[in-house]
Structure prediction request, 166 residues.
Amino acid sequence: MKCPACKKEMFVENFGGVKVDVCKNGCKGIWFDWCELAKLDEKQEGFGKALKEALDFPRVNDEKRGQINCPKCNIPMYIHKYQSSKEVNVDECYGCGGFFLDSGELNAIRDSFMSEEEREKYAQKIIDEIPEFEEAQKDLEKEKMRAEAARKYTKFIRLSYYLTGK
Ligand SMILES: [Zn+2]
Ligand SMILES: [Zn+2]
Prediction:
């Protein structure tokens, strides 16, 4: 996959069980698939050499970069503050739910958590400001339920196969 910011090839790295794409030879940005960032946004989460290295990436000022396109869906991503951080602007794709973090932002997110109350206020602000947000989140939820249902269903098929031989 090509980096959405600098177009260099990204490399898959394992941050302690969570696979992410890292722009190692370019801007040091990190791509997270849907739900993956939430697994690493708190200080005690994740482990390993690759994660340690990524946390040492220097913080860059991405303010002037402007909007980028999702490397998976090729639609414009939304820039907003990360749901749990007071200080970090992330790029989020409402098509696939992926996140792009510029160099140093993962570390900043892990360092600057919002309180419950701040988080709720901020979530409401995003919903008010970006009309598509709520719809997109609903779609993602539906996707998740569909995936969940498919998983259960296949399990069921397999089970009946073992039980009845069909
Ligand atoms: Zn890059
Ligand atoms: Zn996308």
Summary: The longest helix spans residues 131-164. The mean pLDDT is 84. Residues 70, 72-73, 93, 95-96, 98 surround zinc ion (ligand 2) (CB under 6 Å). Residues 43 and 110 are 5 Å apart (CA to CA).
